[in-house]
Design goal:
There is one protein chain. With 63 residues, this protein is mainly α. It contains 1 helix and no strands. The longest helix has 16 residues, at 31-46. This is Transposase and inactivated derivatives.
């Protein structure tokens, strides 16, 4: 399924997005994987491409 499914039609309203991985594979069990995701969020915020107010990462068993 392509990304065209996720379109923001009211940019002034907050949005909620949740994602799951095929077959519920555990991808956030290593600190390095979580660090990549957090650094990506920080980069997008710095470049003014994302306003992130909160996030929750489940599966961080090693932190």
């Amino acid at each position: 399924m392509g990304r065209s499914r996720y379109k923001i039609v009211e940019p002034t309203h907050p949005h909620f997005l949740t994602c799951t991985i095929l077959n519920w594979l555990p991808i956030f069990t290593r600190k390095e994987s979580v660090d990549i995701l957090i650094q990506s969020f920080k980069h997008l915020e710095k470049e003014d491409k994302l306003k992130l107010y909160a996030y929750l990462i489940l599966g961080m068993t090693c932190l």
